[in-house]
Amino acid sequence: MPQNQPLHAANSAYLCKKYTGTMRVDSGSNSVDDVRQRFDAAAASFDDADYVHRNTCDGLLDRLEPVAINRGVILDLGAASGAGSKRLARSFPGSRVIGIDISGRMLARAKKKQRFFSQVRQVQADAMRLPMPSQSVDLAFANLVLPWVADIDGCFAEMNRVLNKNAVFAFASLGPDSMREFRETVQSLDVAMEICTFPDMHNIGDALMHAGLRDPVLDVDRLQITWSSFDTLLADLAACGAIRRPQSEEGAPFRSLAPVFPGRDASGHIAIELELVFGHAWGSGPQSDAGEFRIDPSAIGLREQP
Q1: Domain range for residue 87?
Q2: For residues 103 and 130, is the Cβ–Cβ distance under 8 A?
Q3: In this structure, is residue 292 part of a structural domain?
Q4: CATH label of the domain that carries residue 155
Q5: Are 52 and 227 contacting, i.e. CB atoms less than 8 angstroms apart?
Q6: Which of 223, 248, 269, 306 has its CA 20 to 30 A from that of 207?
Q7: Does position 269 have pLDDT exceeding 70, yes or no?
Q8: pLDDT value at position 294?
């Protein structure tokens, strides 16, 4: 299996009107109901706000090109409106792609866009409790799902449960430097608002191995995105579910950040920088129950006769 690769950083910038994707800014409750409500509300606008989501999907697929993956069952976790599922079906012809999302409205939009003979199917489910038999999946593809998961350890354990031995879990997430501009602004204004924090890459690697996933490979890229005004930034973030609508009671405090928001590029545009964490690891196969040990019979030597 490949060994851990060194970190590398690639900077790129994009001037946005409505192109972000499933980022996360306010911390929220991370409950299943909260996440479902956010993305049900964002379903109609998500396709106009998915630049980061598409960018990380490209990055994940590029990183999987040299990886041997069996054609079979592929899970697209956090499938949203289905663009990633369609890409996976093209990249792995002959596989059965199952788009998993907690939002029924997102999945309805995905189903409406696909062709009748598509190899993609949609299932509404929680990534923590997948309706899949153990050791039944050949690739679990999680594009920007982890920022919305309350228990990463439990999520990784569930991935290892459903993966066949030597199957692949591939993911893109956000690193701790993401949303730094929002945290700095909230601190400077002493506003009662909690901005989401994201785990360090090395902590993610430790959690993967603790869950039984093998040989994790992780790397980091950076992406700067700019907007023409603070209002367009807020509208974009709301369109993809990253914050509540600014007109709502929960989203209104974000407007107070505009006067001192530190993110500006050389041309004066509003800018934020994202730390993108990419990784993949391999399933370890059937897990033993507590107190149960598995021994290869060929490793047992013959006992000498007295």
Answers
A1: 13-285
A2: no
A3: no
A4: 3.40.50.150
A5: no
A6: 223
A7: yes
A8: 47
3-state SS assignment for residue 14: strand
Residue position matching structure tokens 């690193």: 175
Mean pLDDT of 108-122: 89
Can you tell me the distance from the alpha carbon of 12 to that of 33, in angstroms, rounded to the nearest whole number?
Answer: 35
d(CA 99, CA 81): 9
- Say how far residue 101 (Cα) sits from the centre of its chain: 12
* Residue whose pair of structure tokens reads 């992406």 in the numeric block: 223
Edge to edge, the sheet with strand 120-124 lists 13-16, 214-227, 270-282, 163-174, 137-143, 73-77, 96-101, 120-124
Structure tokens at 107: 């999945």
CA 64 from chain centre, in angstroms, equals: 15
For residue 197, the SS3 value is coil
Tell me whether residue 306 is in a domain: no
Whether the full predicted model's pTM is greater than 0.90, yes or no, is no
Strands (E), the chain: 13-16, 73-77, 96-101, 120-124, 137-143, 163-174, 214-227, 270-282
Residue 130 lies in a domain: yes
The answer to whether the Cα torsion of 3, 100, 31, 189 is positive or negative is positive
The pLDDT confidence band at residue 140, using thresholds 50, 70 and 90, is very high
Mean predicted lDDT score pLDDT of the chain: 83
- Residue 205 identity (one-letter amino acid): G
How confident is the model over 206-261, as pLDDT tens digits? Answer: 999 999 999 999 999 999 888 888 888 888 888 888 887 766 766 677 888 888 88
Gap between the Cα atoms of 262 and 271, Å rounded: 8
pLDDT tens, position by position, 195-219: 888 888 999 999 999 999 999 999 9
Q: How far is CA 167 from CA 63, 77, 99, 219, in A?
A: 15, 15, 18, 20
Count of domains for the chain: 1
Determine the pLDDT at residue 24: 72
